[in-house]
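Morning!

This is the sequence you dropped in the shared folder:
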Amino acid sequence: MAQDFEPAETAVWQWVRQAKIDAGQRDGRASSERQGLEALRRDNRRLREDVDVLKGAHRVVDAMQPMWANFSGLASLRSVVIRPSVISTVSSQTSSPPR
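The structure's back. Tokens below.
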């Protein structure tokens, strides 16, 4: 049964080659460096996807801006979101005095 799972000769040669690189006996990228690069590439891909999502959201918000001008409630909500100082003013006006 062990013969069925025996690695190919090229796989063994690649393992030996990588072990020599990791030991500093041969030029090339060490395993830890390869893993670090893979992690950076994965993070970069995820961040690019996040940027694409945010760009899409920005296009939706831009498309809705003319509609906001027609609704005074939404326009005032937008000013609260943009200017955080208004939030504290509004919240202090809406809180009821203690009894």
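Headline: The two ends are 83 Å apart (CA to CA).

More detail when I'm at my desk.
O.
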